[in-house]
């Protein structure tokens, strides 16, 4: 199969793009949304195929491609991983009576990350703690108390069953079900996780997490200073807010340096961009610690490396100090290895654990699968393949070992993984992915730093929590920019004539588009409410799984096939739909015989034969019909489309690959109150000041005129089209940008429009 081929010449606007075919395995067919529908490969064959395609093919290269971007990303995502580890660890401690705490979370993050970086099939994925898994553990602790069974023993037996289910699912290639997820499910889940990061950074309505809560004088961050007469919680909250906003703003500012004219060379600008988040963290950590009279909250981490649970006596069935009041010091920490036989005489517990383990398996399986699906989206241009089945085995082993050691279960962390891809990507100034530096070294470096942290916990106490909130906000906003669901939600508040140019805004009725968005919004709201209410949070995976049959069986009864293609497919599928639709309209109008020359991009046969360009000619107003405001047509070549992230959601932009002797047709239609003026311009490669093409080029006079169907199939109704042209001639390969339709053509062979 063909892979995406891209180069970046110092990112000065010269890019070449080749057709893309997603790397997949088995007998594949297009599922209609950018991924390949996978058919079963036979029991166990999917695992073997994954290992051959990823580890055995790319492992050596991924372990030896160190560069400055790898180092910068390792430090950036170290902070992005250690902060959730500390936060989740503290919440785990409260939810499980310290059986699992901050030390356990940091240790699990470190060892799982290091091992996965070495043997995992998709090294751009980062494991971490998530809210749904935390909610499941909290409910499991309450169940263990009601059953009078030690929590860690029950947790271990459920973890064993989850691992068994994961192994069975991998052997049976159950992951092929994940490919049934379309944008409908992917973007709901992605938007949920992104919004959780943003809300938790600003201020969660369900907890005291977030910078806004510092303005509450009863917040726990102010407790340590309540006896100081000069302490003001308002001053502390204001400084925290400044540090929070500053961290995010400086990170975004430095991230743009790659395309700025500042600093001595491009190498300096690239380094500044790569280390943007790290530099922002260092700057605002220093500022946050510079005001000794205005203290702000710091990370609360344990002072030594040991299990969080402290025993009252040798039996270690009670917790110090909660269960042994008056005892000055604990007997010691709990053992690292869980005693599976400590079931308080209930020998049926190992068999009973299979029931709740099934629900936990659905949670872990879907959390991992949807995140992997998002990571491997074609727009990210990953070339090293996926490894769903092999990684299911790896995660199952992680769950098994962590359960035996009393550590939390880790799954694929969506926002951290997506930010890993963004950090390792080369992009155009508009945010379009050019390539991704696929390596294991960044993942390895991140978690080696986390491991080192275990032996230097006091250093973490110097990092202000508002700085980490700023990092969370940065990560959430970066992952939100490419979410189409977010872009369509903003259209609820836009003037219809100002909608961004997208196929679903041009070919769908606005009310139909808004109906689809409203259905997504309903499921998003349901997921957020269920996830936030701890009593019912265990049903979170069920709602995620419900999105798949809703998309497959319910939505086709509400929307027709064309509408679902336009709003729930990848850009290339949409482009093909537009081309086919235009061809069908031509057939209904009588094909070429029905071409009456009234279309804006038509040229008379006489003009084509003579090679002349006629001056603009006024024509009578035509009957009401769909009018393309700007179009570009060409007889040889084709478009590839990509989505560019922006604050208003992803914007559809085309890229064009053409042959060496192609003729470019440019058409501009300018409406006025009484008339439409159509101008057509034609030029060859020579007219674009390129090196002379090969001698095999035919003359313009003898070149066949493209059909109307070809012109429509190779046209895109966009407001602003930036193209890069890749040309093979007898003198070698050349590249030249094709200016936008708003620009003038300065070539002598192509007069101004």
Portion in helices: 40-55%
Main sheet characteristics: 4 strands, antiparallel
- Name the quaternary structure: single chain
Bin the strand percentage.
Answer: 5-15%
Please give the order of strands in the largest beta sheet. Answer: 9-14-13-10
Extract low-pLDDT stretches.
Answer: 1-35, 593-641, 655-700, 716-753
Question: Given the structure, what is the number of helices?
Answer: 25
Mean pLDDT: 76
What value does the Rg take, in angstroms?
29 Å
Overall geometric form: globular
Provide an overview of this structure.
By secondary structure, the chain is of the alpha+beta class. Helix content is 46%, strand content 10%. It contains 25 helices and 16 strands. A four-stranded antiparallel β-sheet has the order 9-14-13-10. Strands 1-2 form a two-stranded antiparallel sheet. Helix 3 packs parallel to helix 5, helix 7 crosses helix 20 and helix 8 crosses helix 17. The longest helix is centred in the first third of the chain and has 28 residues. The protein is globular. The N terminus and C terminus are likely disordered.
Properties at a glance:
two-stranded antiparallel ribbon, 753 residues, alpha+beta, 25 helices, disordered C terminus, globular, four-stranded antiparallel sheet, single chain
